[in-house]
């Protein structure tokens, strides 16, 4: 009844008041919804950006670490291989040099021994 009485007395004022209240409520509701939507969107975008950035940094870090580890391992393997090959080569070279030296020494000693033997045999033959 009071509303009817106010509506009869002030029809435009009541319509304007209800219109403003409804417009303010709708605007506030839409502003809140839009603000929440934008906040959620920014939060998701920022979260995705940070997650992607951290994933990229971690992937780069792991790739660098693996590259250095593999390079170090390969360098160590090559160094060991070259050391083994060089050691084998030097051992073979030393063995051949010693064998040649011993062969030359034995040839010299045998030649000297044979020469002395022939001289004694020839001397004994001529003395008879």
Layout of SSEs?
Blueprint: H1 2-9, H2 11-127
Could you list some keywords that capture this structure?
mainly alpha; 2 helices
Explain this structure to me?
It is a single chain. With 128 residues, the chain is mostly helical. The protein has one domain (2-127). The protein has 2 helices and no strands. The protein has helices at residues 2-9, 11-127. Helix 1 crosses helix 2. The longest helix is centred in the middle third of the chain and has 117 residues, at 11-127. The model has no long low-confidence stretch (mean pLDDT 82).
The ordered string of helix (H) and strand (E) elements is: HH
Number of domains: 1
Helix count equals: 2
What's the number of extended β-strand segments? 0
Mean pLDDT over the full residue set: 82
Strand content: under 5%
Spatial gap, N to C terminus:
174 Å
Q: What is the overall shape?
A: rod-shaped
Estimated radius of gyration: 53 Å
For this structure, the quaternary state is single chain
Poorly predicted regions: none
Largest sheet: none
Query: SS-based structural class?
Result: mainly alpha
> Helix proportion of residues, in percent?
over 70%
How would you summarize this macromolecular structure in one to three sentences?
The protein is mainly alpha-helical.
């Amino acid at each position: 009844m009071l509303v009817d009485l106010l509506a009869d007395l002030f029809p435009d004022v009541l319509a304007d008041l209800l219109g403003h209240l409804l417009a303010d409520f709708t605007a506030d509701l839409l502003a809140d919804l839009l603000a929440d939507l934008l906040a959620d969107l920014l939060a998701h975008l920022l979260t995705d950006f940070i997650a992607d950035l951290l994933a990229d940094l971690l992937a780069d870090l792991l790739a660098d670490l693996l590259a250095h580890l593999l390079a170090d391992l390969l360098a160590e393997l090559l160094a060991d291989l070259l050391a083994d090959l060089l050691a084998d080569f030097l051992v073979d070279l030393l063995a051949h040099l010693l064998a040649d030296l011993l062969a030359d020494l034995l040839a010299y000693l045998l030649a000297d021994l044979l020469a002395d033997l022939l001289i004694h045999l020839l001397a004994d033959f001529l003395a008879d």
